[in-house]
């Protein structure tokens, strides 16, 4: 009965493809709220990134992070976490200000933000993600206690490089 299984599989693919075509015709994109592979909607624009291994967001943890760092996290970051918390993006490469290409492996578990900040001994960086080599992607806090940009912190050289001014700008750089 292998041929029957093959036909069922083919039918599933065809049904899925039909659904995608219907979506494109209607001009609306599903938000994938109950799907582990999620996309981020931003002001009517779809960030064409699919996230795997996403977990529900605990907003209490965001408040604790803001209190610990005495800073207000950017709204674009907080709203994006609804769709990509702890996620691993399919588009994971980005360039830092030096032109070097880097990789976002996954977004950090919010429970580990403070611990990671203490481990890297950089109270002016709020870690939000890691690359595959232990380097940190994080928000840089300026001397006035405001978030000024997103930076890449190299754990070997203990140096940082700018990535983007906002989380949305960072997402747009992923390729």
Give an overview of the whole structure.
The strands form 3 sheets. This protein has a 5-stranded antiparallel sheet with strand order 6-7-8-9-10. A 3-stranded antiparallel sheet has the order 1-2-3, with helices on one face. It has 2 domains: 28 residues; 133 residues, 3-Layer(aba) Sandwich (SMI1/KNR4-like). The relative contact order is 0.13. A hairpin with a 2-residue loop joins strand 1 and strand 2. It has 175 residues and is α+β, with helices and mostly antiparallel strands.
Overview in brief:
With 175 residues, the protein is of the alpha+beta class. Helices cover 34% and strands 28% of the residues.
Keywords:
175 residues; alpha+beta; SMI1/KNR4-like; 5-stranded antiparallel beta sheet; 10 strands; 28% strand; globular
Topology of helices and strands:
Layout: H1 2-26, E1 38-42, E2 45-52, H2 59-69, H3 75-84, E3 88-89, E4 93-95, E5 101-103, E6 106-107, H4 113-119, E7 125-130, E8 136-141, E9 147-154, E10 159-164, H5 167-173
Antiparallel strand pairs: 1-2, 2-3, 4-5, 6-7, 7-8, 8-9, 9-10
For the record, give the distance between the C-alpha atoms at the N and C termini, rounded to a whole number.
42 Å
Mean pLDDT: 83
Strand count: 10
CATH architecture of the largest domain: 3-Layer(aba) Sandwich
Strand content: 25-35%
What is the CATH superfamily label of the largest domain?
SMI1/KNR4-like
State the major sheet.
Answer: 5 strands, antiparallel
């Amino acid at each position: 009965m292998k041929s029957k299984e093959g036909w069922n599989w083919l039918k599933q693919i065809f049904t899925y493809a039909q659904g995608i075509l219907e979506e494109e015709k209607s001009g609306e994109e599903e938000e994938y709220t109950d799907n582990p592979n999620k996309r981020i909607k931003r002001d009517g624009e779809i960030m064409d990134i699919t996230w795997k291994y996403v977990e529900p967001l605990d907003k209490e943890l965001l408040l604790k992070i803001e209190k610990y760092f005495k800073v207000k996290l950017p709204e674009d970051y907080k709203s994006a976490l609804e769709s990509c918390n702890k996620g691993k993006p399919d588009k994971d490469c980005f360039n830092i200000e030096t032109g070097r290409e880097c990789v976002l492996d996954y977004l950090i578990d919010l429970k580990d933000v403070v611990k990671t900040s203490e481990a890297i001994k950089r109270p002016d960086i709020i870690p939000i993600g890691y690359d595959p080599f232990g380097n940190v992607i994080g928000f840089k806090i300026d001397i006035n206690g405001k978030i000024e940009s997103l930076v890449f912190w190299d754990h070997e050289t203990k140096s940082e490089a700018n990535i983007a001014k906002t989380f949305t700008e960072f997402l747009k750089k992923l390729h």
